[in-house]
TrEMBL record:
Pfam families: PK_Tyr_Ser-Thr. It catalyses: 3-O-[beta-D-GalNAc-(1->3)-beta-D-GlcNAc-(1->4)-alpha-D-Man]-L-Thr-[protein] + ATP = 3-O-[beta-D-GalNAc-(1->3)-beta-D-GlcNAc-(1->4)-(O-6-P-alpha-D-Man)]-Thr-[protein] + ADP + H(+). Residues 16-275 form the Protein kinase domain. This is Protein O-mannose kinase. PROSITE patterns: PROTEIN_KINASE_DOM (PS50011). Keywords: ATP-binding, Endoplasmic reticulum, Kinase, Membrane, Nucleotide-binding, Signal-anchor, Transferase, Transmembrane, Transmembrane helix. It comes from Timema podura (Walking stick). Its EC number is 2.7.1.183. The keyword Nucleotide-binding applies. Its main location: endoplasmic reticulum. The keyword Kinase applies. It is found in: Endoplasmic reticulum membrane. It is a single-pass type II membrane protein.
Length: 275
């Protein structure tokens, strides 16, 4: 936002002009809207049975309000189930390929590495930030995960959809399960998949933690690198790190902080290397 302003509230809703639909899911629909000449994103609850998810999103936005890694909260009206956030015209990270093709396409892989570092820093903030250790549950395939991230005007990534960020606290023996349905595919971590004979039963699943995000991080980074030229050198340089992200045992995987550290080290190497 261009200037500071207190959060908008229920009394401001009549002055907000709803424009076009920019996104919709099970929990909410999001519209481009205009308030006092400023474009914002207005989210409305879609289904009452997802009210707790909608409220969780708002609570997380409040907690992470000062974070540069999370979309800025502009206002809310809890009685009407409306949440207002900063608008980003590039949309989510599913649009990156089109954005880079039409606006800005670097000749080398360090822009892809910048996106990897950006994402790792988001994970580090979730895992070690003001809300405790939070896990990105709404990320069961690459496209779904990318849809949770917005692309800013200066091509930074920020977390946008905070409906499903459950808390892990090992001191209290508090782990998580991402939903009540069976998760399948190589993108989700092994501990998130059904490992037994017979039909899926959520009660038989063991809980898990933030290392599920690390399992996915290697695939996310490799996707970002695929968007630009010269990624082969970086894929080779990051091979061991990304291999460690895919260790079957979660405790053997690196932390988000370690991902940030190594991506930074490789970025520094790139400054002195022509790909």
């Amino acid at each position: 936002m261009m200037q500071c302003h207190q959060w908008l509230g229920c009394t401001d809703l009549p002055s907000i002009s709803i424009q076009d639909l920019i996104g919709s899911g099970a929990v909410k629909s999001v519209y481009r809207a205009i308030w006092n000449g400023t474009t914002v994103a207005a989210a409305f609850l879609n289904n009452g049975k997802y009210l707790s998810d909608f409220k969780h999103n708002l609570n997380m936005l409040k907690i992470f309000n000062q974070s540069r890694f999370v979309v800025q909260l502009v206002g809310f009206c809890e009685s009407e189930n409306v949440v207002l956030t900063e608008y980003h015209k590039f949309g989510n990270a599913l649009n990156l390929q089109r954005i880079l093709r039409t606006r800005y396409m670097p000749n080398h892989a360090n822009f892809g590495l910048k996106l990897c570092l950006n994402y790792a820093m988001i994970l580090d903030h979730l895992h070690n930030g003001p809300a405790g250790t939070r896990v990105m549950c709404d990320s069961n395939d690459l496209n779904k995960l990318l849809s949770q991230l917005l692309v800013t005007q200066d091509l930074q990534l920020i977390l946008n959809d905070l409906d499903a960020l459950p808390l892990v606290d090992y001191r209290l023996n508090l782990t998580i399960k991402c939903g009540l349905q069976e998760l399948r595919g190589d993108f989700v971590a092994p501990e998130q998949r059904w490992q037994f004979e017979g039909n899926f039963e959520v009660d038989k699943m063991a809980g898990y933690g933030e290392k599920t995000d690390i399992w996915k991080a290697a695939s996310v980074c490799e996707y970002f690198l695929s968007l630009v030229a010269g990624e082969d050198v970086l894929l080779y340089r990051l091979f061991d790190l990304h291999k460690s992200c895919k260790y079957f045992l979660p405790e053997l995987r690196p932390s988000a902080k370690q991902l940030v550290q190594i991506y930074k080290e490789v970025a520094e190497e790139l400054e002195h290397t022509e790909l």
